[in-house]
Amino acid sequence: IYHSALRGNTVRSDHGKTLSSVPNFMMKMHERNKQPGLKPGLAAGMLLSYDLPIHVGKDGKPINRFLASRGRNFHQMFIALIHEVNIQLSEWHHSLLLPHSWAGFMERAYHAIIQGRHAELEMQLKHGKEELEQVQYKQFTAWLWVRDMLTDAVKGASKESPVVKGNCLLALTGLAVAIAKHEKELTLDIEEQFDTEPDFLPTKHWLSMVIDTLLSIVDSHYCPKGRIFPWFYQKSYSGENTASAIARSCAATSLSLLVPVFIVSYKERVEEVLNLLIAMLPGKPNADESQAIQIHMSLALGMFISRLCEEKVSDVADKQMNLLLMKSLEALEDCCFDTSLEYNTGCILGVGLVLSLMSHSNLTDSEAHISTSLRKLCKYLDDAEDQSRTLQEILAYTIACVCVSAFSTRIVEATEAEEVMDKLQKLTEMNQQTPGFALALGSLVHGLSVCGHGKADVLSNKLFPAWMKTVLAEGAPTMQRLAAINGLVSLVGSETT
């Protein structure tokens, strides 16, 4: 809730005090916790909310010793979270959230540690421990020094379990995004003051290493363009260097975070990434035997295409890029609606993400395509009664995402949106111990309500007290309370992109 409120800037003044207390509350819970079973949940909460206040002096300027301490604390929390955040490939909703959660944390950590580094250097200069020219060089290169320090921390942790390796990959990608943004903000005249190459690898080369590392992990047959970070592999029985299912899945889903970097610096590699992921879709010759990997490769493709739509690449790119996006979506949709495929849930989620963001792009015939696909997804859900509960939950969630986006851009009318809402409400009422249905319904009701759908407002006012009552009812079944929590969180906007 805290994370989505910050991201969407939707904090009402009367909610500000409550929300601002969340990071401190989570930190105290994390520090005091003695129950191993609570650790992964608290770590995930810290990933989304961890932040520390900046203490200022009477002159209104930040106090250096506190800034330095803040940077050290962020670094310690970074190490802790790499080890404590849990990754379960069967948790589809977590797979959607984790890349962006790590990207948000790494941006906060990166800037806090840079500020801490500057503060330490100023204190050293003040106490006469360093020469002025030396301090100026170190201040100028602080952003690169922090990059390499955090990269070394990832290297140290990457020798551990598959879960830690997965977190390392997500953290490294989040760091790459933060660095690319930071470099963009640096002015050219400052860049020319010092020659940093003897001490630091140029950013373009470092980013290329991150991209090639991810692609090499996703596909063991990939030939990197240059050097890679070789820490994530393990020897297979045949003696080959391979990566675990968790590492491959995390590498694939984290690629979408780098879309802004691809667009600015590596546009020629977008097609390469899309083709690599398409070749690993369920039913394709390169598809892996692992269920988890098939699901995450198709989810990764959907995340990558949707991010390209979000960055409005179709507005600025040439006709070839538009054709490439539509070809990639077509491949994903073919798998999504192919009921003979065993592991196509990632395709369904991926299609939902693309259609949700496609409604705001200028892709050819997108309105008719979205409208038709929404109806096909609804029919798919109607016919899925004898399918797995996970498939039904994913379909419901996908329909909710697409319907909100389509209604917000007037691709579907209020009556059709209401029909979808009724469908999900009935499903949720009949399956009160299914978290995915409550998550989908809450998300749909919130999204439609924000866009001015009157019936959604009415339903929201009914669902909120009902779910809250279930959450607080200690005698209620655990799964029913868990479903109610999912519903409540999505009802206040946790799923808003």
TrEMBL record:
Residues 421-496 form the Focadhesin C-terminal domain. GO terms for biological process: regulation of post-transcriptional gene silencing. InterPro entries: ARM-type_fold, Focadhesin/RST1, Focadhesin_C. PANTHER family: FOCADHESIN, FOCADHESIN FAMILY MEMBER. This is Focadhesin C-terminal domain-containing protein. It comes from Micrurus surinamensis (Surinam coral snake).
